[in-house]
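Below is just one:
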Amino acid sequence: MRKYYYALASFDEDIKIYWVKSFSKRYAKFKLIKYIRRKHRPTGYEPPLKFIMYRYCKEEKPILIYKEMSLW
């Protein structure tokens, strides 16, 4: 079963949701970090140092995996 992961990150006091498909939380973490860095680094904007990561599998409730993860 494929697991869906997403992160809630705060940019300019706003909440953004990023979706990543992965089988493991470690690989999902690396994919999220890579995506967020690629999206916000070229603009010169420094994203927050911490974000929250959840797991979601189709009809289940979201499960908190990492309370806070560092981007850099």
